[in-house]
Request: fold
Amino acid sequence: MNSRHKQRSLLLRVLGIDILISATILICVLFFYFHGLIFHNSSTLYLLLLLIPAYYFFFSGFNLLHGFYRNSNFVVGERRQVIYFTAKFFALKLSFIAIVLALSDPVKGSVQKQVETEGGDIMVCLDLSRSMDVKDIQNQSRLETARNVLKSLTNKLSGHRIGLCVFADNSIVQLPLTRDYNRFKLMVSEVNTSYFSNQGTNISSALDNARRSFNRKGQKNSILLLTDGENHEEGYNAFIDSIVNDDIKLIAAAIGTETGGPIFEGVNKQIRLDQSGNVILSKVNLSLVKNIAEKSDGSWFHLTEAYPSPEAILTEINLNSRGDLRNLNIKIERRLVAIPLVISLFAIVFYLLLPLFLKERR
Reply:
């Protein structure tokens, strides 16, 4: 009876300490939660359910430890061993909880931060004529290639505003200049060649719309033109002069191969044939793209890979923006991930040092 009473007394003390620690952690988390704390990866908190089997192994070990001292002559030291056994469990438990909280990405409020960034806005002119559906780039359409390079480019931007102008026979500004890069990438993913009922490649309209979209004077702005140049409309020279006068950098990217590919039309996607029954091939118009770039003192590229690298285009944009710096006051989320990581580190250090304390006191 004395042994059972002793075991029960130790167990109640352990449970009392554990409840106190757990309640303290829970109260702290709830306090900050009701004062604006959010978890970006809240599903990670389900990992805390692993504490249930952890408690099973803890109490099994606790009973084994007590049984060892009850059936042996080592009466002195049981309490000390129980304390160290319990302390190790609490240290591991605290470290585990802290790591889970860190993985859940806790955020509380935001802070204003001044960031110096390169100036200059980027307006993308994306060709949505039917010829952009031709799959002559590693069995991938020209439009999909344009999407890939634009998404890769956006992932590398920092501070620039970017907008989207789409065109075929005419043009519209699909997305005004913004720093919401995720929205831009979503918009690029959604556009397709069915946007315009009248076909053609009215580059002059797209360039004029892009030029008018820049609403800040004194900046080194850039227009990124992505087109295959097929069925282009004439009369873009006047708009190129306006671009040069406004000191806008034109970067032209020709998309497609010189061997070309067949055009598919209609709901059934039938191959387009000429009057003689021959397959009509759509080929990239390199001379047009090169001519536009040279007349505007810009640069041009030929994209023939399914996943082209954006580095060359990004270099041209950055070179154009060099020396045009501005300060941005932006809001940055106050991330608290460092706090639980520090707590976890201290808990692990405490766990590792416990055997040294035990050795010294023997």
